[in-house]
Amino acid sequence: xxxxxxxxxxxxxxxxxxxxxxxxxxxxxxxxxxxxxxxxxxxxxxxxxxxxxxxxxxxxxxxxxxxxxxxxxxxxxxxxxxxxxxxxxxxxxxxxxxxxxxxxxxxxxxxxxxxxxxxxxxxxxxxxxxxxxxxxxxxxxxxxxxxxxxxxxxxxxxxxxxxxxxxxxxxxxxxxxxxxxxxxxxxxxxxxxxxxxxxxxxxxxxxxxxxxxxxxxxxxxxxxxxxxxxxxxxxxxxxxxxxxxxxxxxxxxxxxxxxxxxxxxxxxxxxxxxxxxxxxxxxxxxxxxxxxxxxxxxxxxxxxxxxxxxxxxxxxxxxxxxxxxxxxxxxxxxxxxx
Length: 338
What we know:
By secondary structure, this protein is an alpha+beta fold. The chain has helices spanning 25-40, 45-65, 98-101, 115-122, 190-205, 212-222, 313-324, and strands at 8-9, 16-21, 69-76, 83-89, 125-130, 136-142, 153-158, 168-175, 178-186, 229-237, 240-246, 250-255, 258-262, 279-282, 288-292, 331-337.
């Protein structure tokens, strides 16, 4: 088992690459991008070749079968040696039989059909979620050497079209038996929004002692003089979640096809916070706690995504970004497990 490094932080721009896959040339671009990333991380040559094959298959599937497909390559620094995460999302048409699609030799277009099965075989972790009429989301992790840490927390960020740097930033840290996580949406877009959000996240992670209300108050003070933004802080200990939010950070508990929203209060961290309030919630066994910025619409329905709450946190984040992400804004999703 690979040891985890904490705290977890959103990847900087140089560790993340979103690519649209809407024509044949994008497949080669995805392959070249992951080979460059693997080279920078000093992946063994044989492992880099396997990774390139998996990414080529994933991009080919998007080009051949999906509408509005996007592929993300991101450095994962959860373990001692950094790995690479592969995420694909699209807007449809969905797969009628996910288990069949993940088998080697299965094809939906008269081709050899080894793509998804090959990705699962090559990756240290791979999972797929699809509902007919909705999109399909794939999440996979590749380490330079075999090993798979237990993932309790994962997030995704996507900058607004035209920007390299995302104004949404997240972080999480474990102290004792308590996980503390923060998501900050800096006002506006680009580097200044990212700088504001980073101040808020750093204020929480540097000294995560105290309850969410106190940590949110500290983030509010630290963001004075920046653009400001919306901040949500959640703590999970046992089967209890405590949450404090300021502004448009949506937080909810997802369990067995139902979604329970957690309350945030109006305001702008760094500028206006008349009253900061904290709320406590019971967590059902196996529940996922989700925070997202307003770059992800809050109108997504848990009932329309059956079984998603039981999946890996990275895959849950991908599904929600595919289902409700808004391209005209920075978007972020952070998913935590008790």
